[in-house]
Amino acid sequence: MGGAGAMFLPLIILAAMMIFMTRSQKKQQKQRQEQLDSMQVGSKVVTIGGLHGIISEINRDKSTVLLDCEGIYLEFNRSSIATVLPSEPVVAATTVDASQKETEEVSEVAETDDKDE
């Protein structure tokens, strides 16, 4: 009886590994589909070939996107989009500029004080 149980143990481990692998593949596939569905006109994307561009048109019937790559328009299949880049927050850039201006003003005041002495 002990020999039969030991014989089924590798099969049980193999089945468990297959279940875990399929779950992770389905999860990755779902994330990829959500990423493709989130594409909209104006989104910055990178193709599987490494080309960066901005989506200027989406044709859901033909499952294609038209990319604007610095004035050159190219049509790609939706599946050839590798990643949709997150939009850059404008507020953060403005905050950095404001803090840089404050730093510059402080250094200008310090330089003016040094010249007066």
UniProtKB/TrEMBL annotation:
The keyword Iron-sulfur does not apply. InterPro entries: Preprotein_translocase_YajC (IPR003849). Keywords: Cell membrane, Membrane, Protein transport, Translocation, Transmembrane, Transmembrane helix, Transport. It is a single-pass membrane protein. Residues 105-117 have a biased composition (Acidic residues). One of its GO terms (biological process) is protein transport. Residues 96-117 are annotated as: Disordered. One of its GO terms (cellular component) is plasma membrane. Signal peptide: none annotated. It is found in: Cell membrane. The chain crosses the membrane at residues 6-22. NCBIfam families: yajC. Belongs to the YajC family. This is Preprotein translocase subunit YajC. It comes from Vagococcus humatus. The lineage of its organism: Bacteria, Bacillati, Bacillota, Bacilli, Lactobacillales.
